[in-house]
Amino acid sequence: MLGFGRRRPVSERRASGETERIFHEIEQTFRVTGINLEFRTLAGFDKLFPVLWEEAFLNVETLAFEEGADHLRAEAVQVARALGRPGALEAVDLGESERFRLRALLALYHYVNPKLLLFTSALSLALRGVGLGAGVDERATEESLVRGVPPAMHPMEMVDEEPDDPRLRAIFDDIRRTLDLPSVNSDYRSLALFPDYLAEAWPRLKSLVGSARYQQGAAELRATARTLAKRLPYPIALSRARIERLGEDPDALARALDEFERILPALIVNVARLALDFEPPERLERSPFPAATRPAVHFTEETAE
Amino acid sequence: MTLREWQRKQRVMQLGDRFLSYVDEGGGRPIVLVHGMPTWGFVWEPLVSRLARDHRVLVPDLLGFGCSDRGEGFDRSIVRQAEALDAWLDGLAVDRAVVVGHEIGGGVALHLAAHFRRRVGRLVLLDSVGYDSWPSEPLRQLGHPRAWRRPSPRTVCALLRQLLRRGFARAPSRELLDGLLAPYATDVGMRSLARDAAALDPNLTLELSPLLPHLLVPSLVLWGADDPFQPLRIGERFAWDLPLAKLVVVPGARHFAMIERPDAVERALREFLAEEEARPPSEARATTH
Questions:
Q1: What ipTM describes this predicted complex?
Q2: Structure pTM?
Q3: Are B7 and A95 inside 8 Å of each other by CB?
């Protein structure tokens, strides 16, 4: 099945060679246990993917990036709070272990999705020729994040996109249709590990997707992400000419990035809403996996010598 | 109890950065049922309601298995599993229990008995791994670092269903096999199972061999008469080496006696639990249920 930008996503299981290495790097620098649909999709641009990651990863390791994502997360919680708690958790009979694992999965996506949005915005801006890293205080690059997946973060487990369970297939079809998606996001596929829960949660999310308040909240989040992306410390050299030289289609990449920039704010709000069933908003506004920092190492010709 | 009902019953305990899911049913003298590979606590389902009438039945999913933590970067060896169970029993305020181990769960139970002696009031080995009787070739292959990447989880589950079928004297239902493999039907589940398989190390039971004659814990060695994975001679050797052991053979059963003959397994367990005093080593002998 073709996904965003009409590229076939590369699963972690199928990744090999350079893509496998980059997936590992993503997990270490994004501090996440799995590879989201966006990176699986970008890996479908196989000639471009290594260059794209080389250009972007320096920003991902900065404190500015982590704090930007923290800001987006807190803003999303405010939007979610205004939309109201969905009450899906009370509506379904889950065991203690199931609730624990569900909460952990929501924490995982609540953590990583704002980072993905910021990353996507940065790439989109770079592709449109907007310079990043200009006029940023040098202190922004003095510290880097400590690499590595937080030990308590749960694996990014998800069901197959074409599940055997007819009820799940129907829900996935509805998600694709409602959100106009070529592929179902990792988040919903993870929630599908608890089919009774997803069956309760999705209609409650869906009922607000078209509302003005929801759309406005998502739009504001998108705008904030762009503003924050412009403040990231390192430039990203991703011109259309360079992409074409690599033998890839810049329009296809732009389409894929636009799609992710469109859907991620809504997804972030949805996850925050679902998490409100588990946690008070004040707690959700804080990062579920705060990052430690270390002094940054800057490779220059001098250090190389 | 259906798979769904079992999942609903599962509780959870955080053990440091890791977590362990378990079922805690009934009340009375605690019995811990430790599963083998490639299954999870659900394998004990036919026995739980029987025993829970007058016992507190505790059924953990080992770390890396079932609905317990299946993340990366932790030790999944039977030694570590025994340490985790010790911490878990601490958390439950269970000082002493009857510990029943099936397959690699038997290896875990042996380590628990050897290194956390106070925990194990009585020991039951059901078609347990031991000495150098394990791992089987398919599980060894599954432990290859790249094994989980090759075929899809669907394909691997189909292969594992074939493997499990060999452990039953009469063909089990598809529903049962799916239930036994349910936690492994995703990429993460399959990767976790591959990590579990990579941690299968017969050195960890071989190192216990010289200790067995000194393990003064009343023991029941319960064995499916026709187990193709852990042949009866392993059970006979356990019964010989463990000084306070008796061997009970379950006729008509292969590797999964608790599913194939829950009545016989329950009867053997109850007789064993009813014994006031263990038999002296010289009386270790085979009986048939």
A1: 0.92
A2: 0.93
A3: yes
